[in-house]
Write a structure and sequence with these properties.
heterodimer; A: alpha/beta; Rossmann fold; 9-stranded mixed β-sheet; two-stranded antiparallel sheet; 28% helix; B: Butyryl-Coa Dehydrogenase, subunit A, domain 1; Butyryl-CoA Dehydrogenase, subunit A, domain 2; Butyryl-CoA Dehydrogenase, subunit A, domain 3; 4-stranded mixed β-sheet; 10 strands
Chain lengths: 256, 379
Amino acid sequence: MHIIVCIKSVIVKAPEAGMVRSHDSTELNPFDRPVLETALRIKEARGGIVTALSMGPESSISAISEARAMGVDRGVLTCDPALAGSDTLATSTALAAALKKLAPFDLVLFGTRTSDSDTGQVGPQAALLLGIPLVTQVHSIEHRDSGLYVERTADGFIEKFELSFPVALTIHPASAQPRDIDLAGIGSAFEEENTKIWNLSDLELSPDQVGDAGSPTKVLSISRAKRHKKCEFLKGDALEQADELIKQLTESGMIG
Amino acid sequence: MDSILSEKHRVVRRSVRRFCERELQPIAKEIDQEARFPWEVVEKMGRLGYFGIQVPKELGGAGLDSLSYAIIIEEISRVCASLGLCVTVHNSVAVYPILAFGSEEQKAKWVPPLARGEKIGAFCLTEPNAGSDATGIESTSIKDGENYVVNANKVFVTNGGVADICLIFVQTNPGADRKEMSVVVAERGTPGFVVGDLEDLCGMRANPVSSIRLYDCRVPVKSLLGKEGQGLRIGLTALDTGRMGIAAQSAGIGQAALEEALRYARQRRQFGVPIERHQAIQFMIADMATLVDAAKLMTYRAAVLRDRGKPFSQESAMAKLFASEAASKITDMAVQIHGGYGYSKSYPVERYYRDARVTRIYEGTSEIHRMVIARGLMR
């Protein structure tokens, strides 16, 4: 069984000015950690190998290293100056090309979102480009001989799916508690170099398909949103204030 | 700082930091106040390899290098210095001497349970009348057939209250040169092995520091570590590594104090602005950050030299001296920046201040370190 987990190295702090991705300013997307855990559990149950795939500058290798320390077998980073400025569609295009190159695979797993851009679009777009079925927000997985039973919760309903391979899933962050990294695992992960770096020509993509050129959307600027705080003093005696407080909290949907 | 580290070492730091912030941060204040050893976390750390950081994998350890070791101790100490102390002492002056001087049989017997944290190690050198003058020990170990009869009175034993496997420094030939000391390994539970009351300490309160006394305690002759008379060499070799650990611990405490001071200086307002805008505060923060950085760099240099198989004794002593004195200065400034609140247990800086103080005393005082360093230069 070949499981591929698509992960991202995210910016840790909101940028004040220009965005610079470096070893000190990035980390493995926290929403990807439960996904890696899910992949490792599936591997433990069914055997096979787990590949971590990422796209980004060379510092993104940190995220792959962390995945390998958790127990992932190998890593692939798609990295090319032409990829800079990629929006979610261009990112999905590059990832889909890498996934095709990594074929055959049975399962492609994504997080539901990232902590730094939070679009939730890459998993679904990549699955579409690959032409494989997709279930999003999966919170539980059961193994069946030829495939999987998965569940997702949407709009207050629980949906169950029976799936055959190959298939793509986005994994709900509450679905699995990521394991603590065993110190011996870190040593093992770095004993042999097992992360490949693929550039655009390895992916057989042209520069106009990715990066700024291949992105229909552009981030023009980022600035910190101002939060407007409102402070209201309740009037009346203590009993009236308490009643008013309960009324307001109930009306705003915070209690009741 | 992490830009100079390899990818492996960055992963080590991130992994340990995540674990410590989740498992230790929430209880760090409580275990300090209650002087409680957090077994519930220690057991998890044992399973994850923290008690055999540099022990080869075939003996149950994590098989990491010295730089990883320094980073791990720094990160644990950033959150809870008492547990940083437990882990560094266990690894550097209890497990490592057995690895370096033990027979194959001794290693196979003692190292795997120590490396998994199932048993805790301790280094028992200090006595009521022998501290900086280590050769002044009065404990004895007299051969009697297949056993040594050990009589020892060891004080201020780090991990003493929970230690299972103890390296006891003794005189095997009491009439001979005082430097001809030896090390026997004694296990808790052996008749005559007595753990004294826990010390009620100023800092490092979650570490069960105690006395350990052996009364006519019979330990097998094969529990002798190395050879008779080799004890001083074993002790000094262990302390070279141990000092690197204390330097890392001090850097971790300094880092924590710096982070707290920065946080507080941003939030506390005086004279109409956050106090971080006042130059007096900025100067303290700049000094603190510089000291933390230098302490880390000196510690990492000692670690890298050790990893390369180069002499590192002098560098380790310098790192320990500098980092421990830096930790005292940094935590003092952190308290000062917090003003009255820094003197209150409502904020963690008073704990850092108390914890930092002893780093200038144990594993060789600052004064002994200056002697060691000077001696190294004047050879």
